Amino acid sequence: MHDDRRNQGFFEGPMIMLLSAAIFGFFGFFYVNWNTLGVDGNPVLFRVLLGWTLKTTAILFAASAGLAALKPYLGNLLYALTGVASAGLFFVVAIMDIADDQHGFMPYGPVVLLLFAGWNGFGSWSALRAVLAMRRMPGAAGE
Fold first, then answer.
1. Which of 11-15, 18-22, 60-64, 82-86 has the lowest mean pLDDT?
2. What is the pLDDT of residue 131?
3. Residue 41 contacts residue 1 (beta carbons within 8 Å)
4. DSSP result, 107-143
């Protein structure tokens, strides 16, 4: 029989996932929504992409928490994959923001996105590697 307590050092708990979902959800559903239009009144692609990245990530982080409560390996795998994907999209949005000299968020907006992409990406990539390494251990996935 598999004992998930021995994997606690590798697995995030549902509460951390829910906290991440709340943070991403706050910015995706409440903060970014008002700032998607450019000076001409048309939607700006990178702002819309940022909003949907935050919203989708929040939903998937919440789903990861529910899944982790039932199947810790699968929940952590979804959480790590979602984090890696969102970090990549933050990088893309930051580059789009830098390249757009007409619709930039704020002078420091791309820098914050790049720092967050690096921080989130490194943590998620490390978590993904740890989760995948657990898969190779006998009975580690426990699924």
1. 11-15
2. 87
3. no
4. TTHHHHHHHHHHHHHHHHHHHHHHHHHHHTSTT-S--
